[in-house]
Amino acid sequence: MQVTAPRGAISKLVQNLRSQGYTVVGPSLCEGVIRLKEITELGDLASGVLDVQAPGSYSIAGESPLFFSSVNGPDSAKNFLHPPEVVLTKLIEGSRGVEQTSAFHSDKKYAFFGLRPCDLRAVEIMDGAMMSPGYEDPVYSTLRNGSIFVVVNCTRAGGNCFCATMGTGPEASSGYDMAITELPDRLLIDVPEGSKKLLEGVKVSPASEDDVRAGKEMIDHARTQMGRRFEAEEVSKLMYTGMDSHVWKETADRCLACGNCAMVCPTCFCNVVQDRTDITDGSVSRVRMWDSCLSKDFVYSAGGNPRQERSARYRQFVMHKFAYWRDQFGPYGCVGCGRCITWCPVGIDITQTVNKVVKDQPEKKELGGIPAV
């Protein structure tokens, strides 16, 4: 169902979500950066804020008459559904000896308000990895199952966006509970049949053909703004034949192996588990924290480290997104949000890396594949 509503309806939509027991999470301006934070009222949302992004650069500059003007900050839904740190279990000595408790528990239901189409697609991709039958992550599934998504279609592209070439944006096609396209003077809203309750108390009118056309034109404009794209249609097979490309070392010579790209990526889920002791109560906790394949110690084992060279670790990061993930789960592990380009301290552009690896292929070399790792 497509309807239109005045722009002031945003406040009522947030109120409706909160009244239905959801913790509303949306883009908020915090210390010069657009972050995803809990939203309690309209004033908490970043309104009319323009972000300027380039390789290794992010800033807030200027204003816009549109409410949803900013693109993506460093946060994504992953920050809430796959938390950076979570206590998995806890041991404590009680009256009956050492007792084990399941420390993780959450009654929260998240409503992601103002999420972008690429980030919505990232959640669907994470679902395939974190909720695979037989390998389900209980923390992720607990937080994910109660979540709903109010997505905002992009009418402006960020400086590092390439969702169009990944087929993940700038328009959401599925998986949302409400999709909003902000027109200059009103909201064009698409609501699936089962989510009509989200519009309670909101004054709406049936969307006209002109409304739908105007929304489509604005989204198409955002699509044409994106300058980054891949030169080959099926890059995953070509990536396998480029495992020994000189491009990996050339790019890794710039890479700091800081892990920023993995931290801000909406689909990276690598983690490390540590045991901690608390001297105040004598308890021992097992804690899971985010980690990165760029870290030299990430794959260290009793047999040593198979990825001593930084080029091997950087290759792992890129290959996982554009080759291994595709073999394991079907889609690519990248959604084209551009965060890894923006938040890389030295401005490494992952699209340039992939294009260079593909271009570096001998013309007559047979395409092949290797088991995903």
How is this fold's topology laid out?
Layout: E1 2-5, H1 9-19, E2 23-30, E3 33-38, E4 49-54, E5 57-63, H2 78-81, E6 85-94, E7 97-101, E8 110-115, H3 117-130, H4 138-145, E9 148-152, H5 163-166, E10 178-182, E11 187-190, E12 205-206, H6 209-225, H7 235-241, H8 247-252, H9 260-264, E13 271-278, E14 283-290, H10 310-329, H11 339-342, H12 350-359
Parallel strand pairs: 2-8, 8-9, 9-10
Antiparallel strand pairs: 1-11, 1-12, 2-3, 4-5, 6-7, 6-14, 10-11, 13-14
Helix pairs in contact: 7-10
Explained architecture:
The structure is a single chain. By secondary structure, the chain is of the alpha+beta class. It has two domains: 2-83 and 108-225, no CATH class; 235-270 and 293-359, no CATH class. The chain has helices at 9-19, 78-81, 117-130, 138-145, 163-166, 209-225, 235-241, 247-252, 260-264, 310-329, 339-342, 350-359; strands at 2-5, 23-30, 33-38, 49-54, 57-63, 85-94, 97-101, 110-115, 148-152, 178-182, 187-190, 205-206, 271-278, 283-290. The protein has an eight-stranded mixed β-sheet. A hairpin with a 4-residue loop joins strand 10 and strand 11. Mean pLDDT is 91; it is low at 364-373.
